[in-house]
Design a protein that fits this description.
Layout lengths: L1 H29 L7 H17 L4 H24 L5 H19 L5 E3 L14 H22 L3 H11 L1 H6 L4 H27 L1 E3 L6 H16 L6 H24 L7 H29 L10
Antiparallel strand pairs: 1-2
Helix pairs in contact: 1-5, 1-8, 1-9, 1-10, 2-3, 2-4, 2-8, 3-4, 3-8, 5-10, 6-8, 9-10, 9-11
Length: 304
Amino acid sequence: MAFLYALPGAAAEGLIWGLMAIGVYISFKILDIADLTVDGSICTGACVCAMLIAAGVPVWVSVIAAFIAGALAGVVTGLFHTALGIPSILAGILTQLILYSVNLSILGGKSLAAIDPRANKLIVHMSDNPRSIVAMVIVVAATIIALWLFFYTEVGLTIKSTGDNPHMSRAQGVNVSLNKVVGLAVANGIVALAGAMLAQYKGSANINDGRGAIVIALAAIFIGLSVSLKIKPNFVVSLIGVVGGGIVYYIVYNFVILLGLKTDYLKMLSAIIVAVFLAVPYLKAEYFTKHTSLHPNAGGDANA
């Protein structure tokens, strides 16, 4: 019964992290960049949103400001990588370190900023999970539709081609560097948007909110894609699958907590989940497919 009571909260929080995973999907799957900026940009979105709401700024304006702040963080990473020639993974780490100081400054030197749900009409909050689920479904659906429209424009298609084959794209006259910067800006903007929703849901923004966020996002991506790619492997279905992966992850997360696992081990659990979903395709190709192809009856009798 305790697990059933926890399901609405798990679904609401899973939708928020699924939104965050969409941003990571853009950088990781579409741009083919392992961007570690997200551990900082999700916290930036949370801090900006929380401080603006506390200052009396309307919630939707605060959310838009959070998106813009995250997009700027992505631009910084993109410029580090393209203009300065820093490897993408190191560029993300550098921006993440910069954002830690920036986030502290946004919070006024404090480690936490609270949001009063009674004084502000928040989009989501843990005190009303059914309403939060409906609101997040609308936000996630709007984000997926916007991305679907964007990535089928000329700019969006060139960003996709940059991730698929940057050398061929460059030979066709595509500005690969600009596309990487724009793609990282969009990705981190969505991550910061998820951070803004997370701050509202929890009722606070913490300087450590983004720690390990990339692992949760990757878990959601690989859980979701392992299912969605078997249904219909297209862009929209993949994004829906990623969000579903976030929900599944948090349902499992809550189930494990209810079983009595110490919270000290939850980050380790996240890493193990990601490792398993990363290893399964390799192990399947390495052992199952190879052994099947070597079997004398594999593929049937050639003379049949």
